[in-house]
Design goal:
single chain
Length: 195
């Protein structure tokens, strides 16, 4: 009888230790899915603003056709690259980041073009769109930061014992990829501001 109660106690402790990932891993995975959806939502919001911005700029800078076409094409590419959280692999994450980076680059070129047109910079429609775009970029940053944190938490659960034991035995989830900076040298160097 004494050995039976000792074995049951030991079994109960082992079950508690091993099953500690039973709820935490699926919960963390749900958070990753939700945060990824928010990242996509903010990128979609930016993509939805681009045609309006291009139309306003087009009225003032019609001869800047190459820049405007570049923005429209980059937006089209960015909206075509879409993945669910389940499809996020290192390769798919790179494709997504390249597409969004292309749109960011095209928008930067558009803003440089805008500097040439003082009347455009004073146009209320343009100012409103520019403020919305700046707000959206901030929302993208916040959404990406939340996603990064959710991925860190999930990856810890699936790779750090004791929850990783449960994952290894029952769930078999792999670590999820993080956002990465494509050109680290470019990101580390602050842009030069000249007046």
């Amino acid at each position: 009888m004494k050995y039976l109660s000792l074995k049951l106690s030991l079994l109960a402790v082992m079950l508690l230790t091993v099953s500690c990932g039973m709820q935490s891993i699926p919960t963390a995975l749900n958070q990753v899915d939700a945060d990824w959806a928010e990242v996509q939502n903010q990128y979609k919001r930016r993509a939805d603003l681009v045609p309006n911005l291009v139309e306003v700029v087009k009225g003032y800078a019609s001869h800047e056709k190459e820049t405007l076409t570049g923005v429209v094409e980059a937006r089209a590419k960015a909206t075509q690259v879409n993945f669910t959280a389940d499809q996020l692999t290192e390769e798919n994450m790179k494709k997504f980041q390249q597409a969004q980076g292309g749109l960011s680059s095209a928008l930067s070129r558009l803003m440089v073009t805008v500097e040439k047109y003082p009347d455009l910079k004073a146009n209320q429609n343009f100012l409103d769109l520019q403020a919305q775009l700046e707000g959206t970029e901030n929302r993208i940053t916040v959404a990406r930061n939340r996603y990064i944190e959710a991925i860190k938490n999930f990856n810890n659960l699936v790779s750090v014992p004791p929850t990783s034991w449960y994952n290894g035995i029952f769930l078999k989830h792999a670590k999820k990829p993080q956002f990465q900076v494509d050109n680290i040298q470019e990101a580390q160097n602050a842009p030069a501001v000249k007046f």
